[in-house]
Amino acid sequence: MVCTGFLSGASFAQLPPSKTQGDTTFITGGIGSDESSAMFAAAKKWSLLIEMSEIDGSGRGVWIAGIDIRVQNAKQQSILETVCDGPLMLLNAPPGQYTVEASYQGKLLKRNVVLKEGYPQKLTLFWRP
Predict the structure, then answer these.
(1) Out of 14, 22, 29, 49, which could bridge 43 as a Cys pair, Cβ 3.0 to 4.6 Å?
(2) Helix, strand, or coil here: 26?
(3) Diameter of the chain by CA atoms?
(4) What is the dihedral of CA 114, 117, 119, 125, to 10 degrees?
(5) Region of residue 61 (left: phi > 0; alpha: psi -120 to 50; beta: else)
(6) Strand blocks (E) in the chain
(7) How many Cβ atoms sit within 10 Å of the Cβ of residue 24?
(8) Considering only CA atoms, which of 30, 1, 3 is closest in space to residue 15?
């Protein structure tokens, strides 16, 4: 019997390793189409997906890496401080209100998010020149 079907590269892609700080588990990455596809596919099982890009001269969003991320809970306690290895971050934290601070090339973006059990969120951050 000959198999004529094929599996896409995303079927074989693995997520980057997860890391933990306190009660917060996270993954950073998304470099390459296989890794980003794997992260987008896994996002429904994580509290928060953060997508980061910079607006280029033509007005297009271009994915970036090397972003400093800090996440604070409602008591303004830091639950996560890291540098993203790629344009995507998956984050699992207890339900609650959080402030995400992301810094890229000296420009700080600050967003509030509410995480609820069973309701994955997506946060898209754009840096403008």
Answers:
(1) 49
(2) strand
(3) 62
(4) 40
(5) beta
(6) 19-21, 24-29, 48-55, 61-63, 68-73, 78-83, 88-92, 96-104, 107-115, 121-127
(7) 19
(8) 30
DSSP-derived secondary structure letter, 35: H
Per this entry, what is the length of the chain? 129
Classify each residue of 62-94 as buried b or exposed e, where b means 16 or more C-beta atoms within 10 Å of its C-beta: eebbebebbbbbeeeeebbebebbbbbbbbbbe
Chain center to CA of 2: 40
Alpha helices, DSSP H only, in the chain? 9-12, 33-42
For residue 91, give both structure tokens. Answer: 């984050």
pTM score, two decimals?
0.87
CA-CA distance, 74 to 57, in Å (whole number)? 37
Report the distance separating Cα 61 and Cα 10, nearest Å.
23
What is the token pair recorded at 73?
């809970």
CA distance 82 to 71: 9
